[in-house]
């Protein structure tokens, strides 16, 4: 089968309200949209990948805004289902690099209605890569089953699978995150993890070397660990580990920069770049994204990223 899509992501969509003032002082919040799997999809799409998105959207006042925005981006929304439920949202304020407010409103929201019925086998088989996260699994038991089913189909049909636990104490607890991870690990080819949140919450393993060995022993081919301590990315396989530094030091807001990295990395893999080349491209993408406020709004486009990469400036 000739692949129609470079990447299909499965996950939640949220309305974003952002400000560069403290929330108690802000008289105006800028409306946009976000959600981790959606940011991954947009990041890859803005680099010119052909991308599909699987989610459920609530039939409320934000429905048309979200659907039109995604279609304008060029996302395939054939498998976005409209349901009679509300859309979730979050508010983010960044007044300085060390001052951030983040509030979620995501209980019983439309994406929680994702289920096995939303996973079309032919759609999954039509993509080079399938991506989901622990956030998607946390939405509901039905969405958790949907992610596993999609990864099973992908694994059986030679489609690359990519996963990020994306642990947050605002969403789940360490025991749940560990359960989500070990459920999906047997079907995962590429794993993204944060050293600050994921590895410390899911594993009782101290050293980076032992974490990568543990993960590759599970059958995961490529492990990317995002290090906030060393400001960069460790790309590990069963044979070696390489470090790629974070592109920028001019950070304004890191909201979803990890998701932008994931999308750019998967775009690059789908287009034939190796792991280290893909990590460099993704680091540039995430660095540019972190120079603005919010999730999708500041995610860069192809020419911005590849002008830097092709010039060998990084």
How does this structure look, described?
This protein is an alpha/beta fold. The protein has a single domain, classed as Ribokinase (UDP-N-acetylmuramoyl-L-alanine:D-glutamate ligase), CATH 3.40.1190. Helix content is 35%, strand content 25%. The strands form two sheets. It has a nine-stranded mixed β-sheet with strand order 5-4-1-8-9-10-11-12-13. It has a four-stranded mixed β-sheet with strand order 3-2-6-7. Strand 6 and strand 7 form a beta hairpin. Helix 9 packs antiparallel against helix 10 and helix 10 packs across helix 11.
Q: Which features would summarize this protein structure in a list?
A:
alpha/beta, 11 helices, 9-stranded mixed β-sheet, single chain, 4-stranded mixed β-sheet, globular, UDP-N-acetylmuramoyl-L-alanine:D-glutamate ligase, 314 residues
């Amino acid at each position: 089968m000739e692949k129609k899509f470079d990447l299909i992501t499965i996950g939640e969509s949220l309305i974003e309200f952002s400000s560069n003032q403290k929330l108690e002082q802000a008289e105006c919040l800028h409306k946009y949209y976000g959600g981790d799997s959606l940011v991954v999809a947009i990041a890859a799409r803005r680099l010119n990948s052909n991308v599909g998105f699987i989610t459920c959207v609530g039939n409320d006042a934000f429905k048309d805004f979200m659907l039109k925005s995604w279609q304008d981006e060029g996302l395939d929304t054939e498998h976005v289902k409209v349901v009679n439920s509300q859309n979730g949202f979050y508010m983010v304020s960044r007044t300085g690099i060390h001052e951030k407010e983040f509030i979620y409103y995501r209980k019983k929201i439309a994406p929680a209605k994702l289920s096995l019925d939303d996973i079309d086998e032919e759609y999954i088989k039509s993509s080079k890569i399938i991506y989901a996260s622990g956030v998607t699994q946390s939405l509901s038991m039905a969405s958790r089953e949907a992610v596993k089913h999609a990864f099973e189909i992908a694994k059986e049909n030679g489609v690359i699978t990519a996963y990020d636990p994306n642990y947050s104490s605002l969403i789940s607890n360490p025991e749940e995150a560990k359960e989500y991870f070990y459920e999906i690990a047997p079907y995962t080819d590429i794993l993204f993890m944060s050293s600050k949140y994921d590895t410390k919450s899911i594993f009782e393993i101290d050293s980076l070397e032992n974490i990568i060995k543990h993960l590759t022993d599970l059958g995961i081919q490529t492990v990317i660990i995002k290090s906030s301590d060393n400001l960069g990315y460790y790309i590990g396989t069963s044979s070696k580990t390489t470090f790629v530094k974070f592109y920028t030091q001019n950070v304004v807001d890191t909201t979803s920069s990890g998701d932008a990295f994931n999308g750019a990395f998967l775009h690059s893999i789908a287009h034939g770049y190796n792991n280290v080349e893909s990590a460099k491209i993704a680091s540039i993408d995430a660095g540019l994204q972190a120079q603005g406020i919010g999730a999708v709004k500041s995610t860069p486009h192809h020419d911005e990223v590849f002008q830097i990469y092709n010039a060998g400036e990084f």
